[in-house]
Amino acid sequence: xxxxxxxxxxxxxxxxxxxxxxxxxxxxxxxxxxxxxxxxxxxxxxxxxxxxxxxxxxxxxxxxxxxxxxxxxxxxxxxxxxxxxxxxxxxxxxxxxxxxxxxxxxxxxxxxxxxxxxxxxxxxxxxxxxxxxxxxxxxxxxxxxxxxxxxxxxxxxxxxxxxxxxxxxxxxxxxxxxxxxxxxxxxxxxxxxxxxxxxxxxxxxxxxxxxxxxxxxxxxxxxxxxxxxxxxxxxxxxxxxxxxxxxxxxxxxxxxxxxxxxxxxxxxxxxxxxxxxxxxxxxxxxxxxxxxxxxxxxxxxxxxxxxxxxxxxxxxxxxxxxxxxxxxxxxxxxxxxxxxxxxxxxxxxxxxxxxxxxxxxxxxxxxxxxxxxxxxxxxxxxxxxxxxxxxxxxxxxxxxxxxxxxxxxxxxxxxxxxxxxxxxxxxxxxxxxxxxxxxxxxxxxxxxxxxx
Length: 452
Fold this sequence. Notes:
Number of domains: 3
Mean pLDDT: 85
Organism: Streptomyces aurantiogriseus
Domain OmpR/PhoB-type: 269-335
CATH architecture of the largest domain: 2-Layer Sandwich
Keywords: DNA-binding, Transcription, Transcription regulation
Protein name: Transcriptional regulator
Low-confidence stretches: 1-27, 445-452
Pfam family, one: GAF
Shape: globular
Structural class: alpha+beta
């Protein structure tokens, strides 16, 4: 599909005077339908705009900017308007993933605040993770059965990159509360629905944990539904902040080192940003709870054999001062408290064969700027393991997410697998460009045919 643009001036038949959209009166561009607008007429206009976009690649007014941007992202990700969501987590995998997810701790709150509203209004309460995978879908039984026909069910992947514009997927994509009305949905089979969702953040780190969503009929296009889910999300964040941390003597520290050059170490309300060298040391010590000798740590960290043990001891002394007393022991060097690293989470899920859960936990390459020999080996081993699992799984949505991530933009193996699983024009064009670049870099030229 060609690059899309918003039309500078609407055609006269795009905005009939009878519905008077009154864009100047809109105070919140994230609300789908302003008070007084005719929902039936708006649906007709949006369906025509959707057809224009899917056929010509342009977004006519009055499509909201948030929706237009989402349609463009959906098209670039290779989502088709006649696609459907895929169910990727089932049975034991789903149960295990939900049990360890941070939002499991606030599900009772979600049910208390939204359960009755969803059941009485024939709506659905849905909660997704930070990658758009639905973890819980609850509410009116008849509505659940109807939603099940489009795979709006627990374990299904509703990321924007997988099924296009939808409230939970778009909310985590843009990190904003958002409402999606009827034909604003990118996939046609979802267009009879309206939904509103708001992201939920970790109160300690600020990272997106997922989103809470209310899904149902056109009545949810009212501004109050967006304010409602936003208030519920804020209540959940406050509840997470109030949950008592574990006592320091039994607390588990969490080490986040994927997708960043400087790792973060958190426990309870304490959060430490580590230098690059200290990040490398913590990654290695977390991986070896039994400890490492000075010589082992020296070889793991430094390519230059001329680096002396004195240099390493100085780094460890500085790290000990940052962590506080009693957390870093010596002879051998080891951590005295449990440390759960995001690297270990990905490795466990990969070993268990839960590829979707492993990819969900993978925030990017391990300490990408590090040149420490042991870290480089671990970085490559983790990425290679995930890549092999993705290629073997042949799931087009998982492959597309990897290919469109910064670390996958030039991953030829994944692009070839994606082209086989989802051979859209955009994917084939990108694969051809990568293969051309590889050929040029290798200095390869096609040999001339032998004369006859």
